[in-house]
Amino acid sequence: MTRTPSTPHRLHLFSDAVFAVLITVLVLDLRPPAEHSFSALLSLWPTGVSYAVSYLFIAIVWANHHHLMSFAQTSTPRLVWANFAHLFTVSLVPFSTAWVADSRLAASPVSFYAAIFFLVDATYLVLYWEALDRPKLGDPAMRHVVRTRSWVTLALFAAATVVALFAPAVGMALIVFCLLLYIKPEPRLTAPEN
Q1: Reported pTM
Q2: Distance between CA 83 and CA 36 in Å, rounded?
């Protein structure tokens, strides 16, 4: 009896559910100010900044994950475990966001935050390799562009991790800069027709 390879459809649906839960958990950490004034709301700016950056980050990760998974043709064990590793690192974003907000952008929390982003990007690169590079799907030149963008981003997140220890605002700016590199999945990298 031969076994038909399973499609990654269920893996994709499960991942979407995890991203939805993470967005929800992220918003649950938002707390209103004790006072009922706009000035009290303005004093929560570190919470707003960390929430906005994290929300954007999770949205970008989901969009790129969604785009990448459209290339996966079979749900191999390596793809499943690469996906779980990626989701695990993304699941640390709400915790690191809460710490950054609570500390009011202190050095160690921002450095940890950047390190989590580094891990998310590193596991995305592994997932990318399993979904696209290993089976050699898509244009080789575009695969090279995507890989290069990932390596550059990894280097910038690593730099943000170190820089944040001395200048947290600069570390946060590097994080935001990295996010801008991923706002749109590579448009010339098109999924195969099903």
Answers
A1: 0.88
A2: 44
